[in-house]
Amino acid sequence: MARQNKYNAKQKVVDGHTFHSKREAERYCELKLFVRAGEIRNLVLQPRFLLQEEFFDKNEVKHKKIEYVADFLYIDKDDKAIVEDVKGVLTAVYKLKKKMFLKIYDEQYEFREIR
Hints:
The protein is an alpha+beta fold. The chain has helices spanning 22-36, 92-105; strands at 12-14, 17-19, 40-45, 48-52, 55-56, 62-63, 66-69, 72-76, 81-86, 110-114. A four-stranded mixed β-sheet has the order 3-8-9-10, covered by helices on one side.
């Protein structure tokens, strides 16, 4: 029996890409229309952003890097780089990573949370 998502999100496949939720897949389809209309360009799915490098603490214990994986990245018609995340549930981990992302990348990207 397939494991159910704890937030009741249903995975959906579009164009060979598996999305974590129906809403995320719908947003992808919307963004594809914007690409075709020339409103946005360079659409990237699941872009990764480094929040913290891996490191060894004073006891020589290795700590893995921390990354934030957004849902979409694209350039809008005003040449602004937009990072989007489609969210149903705002988890504590998401809120923390969003805060870290904004601290590091706020000048470089416009962040949009799609609900």
